[in-house]
Amino acid sequence: MTKPRIAIVGGGFTGLSAAYDLCKAGCDVTIFEHDADIGGLAGTFELSPGVRVEKFYHHWFTSDVDVLNLIDELGLSHLKRYVSSNTGLYYTNSIFRLASPLDLLKFRAIPLLDRVRTGFMALIARRINSWRELEDISAEDWLIKYGGRKAYDVMWSPLMQGKFGAEAKNVSAVWIWNKLKLRGSSRNKKGGESLVYLGGSFGALSDGIRAALEKEGVTIKTSTSVTSIVVDNGRAVGVDTSAGRHAADVVLCTAALPQFLEMTPGLPASYVDKCQQIRFLGNTCLVLRLNRSLSSTYWLNVADPSFPFVGIIEHTNLDSKENYNGEHIVYLSKYLPTTEALFSMSAEETYAYCEPFIQRIFPDFNRSWVNGFHVWKARYSQPVITKHYSHNIPDFQTPIKSLWLNTMAQIYPEDRGTNYAVRYGRRVAREILASVSSAQGEPEPLRRVVGQSTSE
Ligand SMILES: Cc1cc2nc3c(=O)[nH]c(=O)nc-3n(C[C@H](O)[C@H](O)[C@H](O)COP(=O)(O)OP(=O)(O)OC[C@H]3O[C@@H](n4cnc5c(N)ncnc54)[C@H](O)[C@@H]3O)c2cc1C
Asked: Best substitution site from 241, 259, 416, 420 to test ligand 1's pocket, by max atoms within 8 Å of Cβ?
């Protein structure tokens, strides 16, 4: 029996996780990755030889069991670091610590009753079992209902606008419910937030998966773009790439949804139309390498949508600066429509634009603190989770035979994240294996049970 040949478009964590289970089940897998390295949105870059950090800030919650279990499976448990996170809020020229329920109780910018109500919102979120009842409600209405108007105006509205801009009002309660539930489930006994990071960065996880894949004979072709899915008679039979044609029995695309639509000929117009209802935001991330720390806060939300960033994430308050040549690594993040001027700015222009805003928060900050900076941009960084989002999500199985889709926009009711990339990647692998097995009359190599996710 010949091994099924599987071509995977995209070497992010979805593609890598799917490949991991497919190759273990006996498939012949080739991954095509446009970038020079694997990792996708959770990819890293080198600060100096051997010292890597994420292009976009990343951490895990303690409840991210799918990815944490994968780390164990790959024998990388010793690299896991559990860290207490320290969050804050910049509001009307002041920084407020908001790392625990007690901090929230002391946050005098909102009335005491609303502080108490806001404190209970995470508990309320955890008690809601069916996201379906939230699909018809906007995040704004839900937040006002449970946290109060003043809490919404002071805290939530600027944060929602900072994250979703003009789309903020369209965001569904499912999105905020899921965020509150997730953060609430990653808390220590004192109510503080506990996070997980990996020694050697997320790149250490990519390295671990790559080694496991290559051991099983998977070919990973980086710097290779898939230009088109090859469709013959309604069936995917391979991919055309910047390095030539590659024949396959099954194609799995993990690129962003708009990219999938661009590279796939022959999709029914109604299917394309439905997929196009899903809108995306881009992200631009300024990474500063400083010789001084900005503050002791890891995650500072900026509750002022006029700023060119919604968060200041001082990574070296999560993972020691000693791991980064003694430099303080700080991310300034902005989600935005890619038509906004900031998205097209050069690194120098982005820094110059942001500097006065950094100084408004940290008045002593100046260019002499900056050893260097980098700017990373992602065109498809966050799908906008609108009301009744579930109606627009395409299935894993596409209208074209043997062509499968597993992309960030299908993650729901959870929101994108590497944990879900792993969970959904392994889930689509199981579905592909089941489909190939039934088509082939259950060949021996596909009988093995693969990666049952613990969280399903
Ligand atoms: C600012 C930011 C912060 C984040 N923070 C966190 C965090 O703290 N924790 C967390 O877990 N997650 C975080 N995430 C989310 C996480 O990075 C993503 O959910 C996850 O990496 C998505 O993986 P993926 O494989 O589904 O998609 P991607 O990582 O987007 O991978 C898709 C891959 O397909 C490739 N590709 C596209 N087109 C082609 C083509 N034509 N040919 C070949 N290859 C192609 C792309 O280059 C890419 O590598 C964050 C994301 C952003 C943007």
From this structure: 416
- Distance from first CA to last CA of the chain, Å, rounded? 32
Closest CA to 83 of 204, 200, 202, 186: 186
Cα(38) to centroid(ligand 1), Å: 10
- Residues 261 and 139 placed together within one structural domain of the fold: no
Give the CATH number for residue 155.
Answer: 1.10.3110
How many Å lie between the centroid of ligand 1 and the Cα of residue 165? 21
Residue 186 and residue 254 in one domain: no
Pocket of ligand 1, beta carbon within 6 A: 9-15, 32-35, 40-42, 56-60, 225-226, 254-255, 259, 263, 283, 285, 333, 378, 381, 408, 416-419, 421
pLDDT digits (tens, 9 = 90+) for 309-333: 999 999 999 999 999 999 999 999 9
12 CA distance to ligand 1 middle (Å):
6
Which H or E element spans position 130? none
Is the same domain home to 140 and 259? no
- Contact predicate 141/107, CB 8 Å: no
Task: Evaluate whether 251 touches 9 at the Cβ level (below 8 Å).
Answer: yes
Looking at the 3D structure of the chain, how many domains does it have?
2
Does the pTM surpass 0.85? The reply is: yes
CA distances (Å), 364 to each of 107, 234, 327, 417, in order? 25, 63, 18, 35
Q: Give tens-digit pLDDT for 419-447.
A: 999 999 999 999 999 999 888 775 444 54
User: What's the domain range around 106?
Assistant: 100-192
Same-domain pairing of 159 and 228: no
Task: Give residue 380 CA to ligand 1 midpoint distance, Å.
Answer: 8
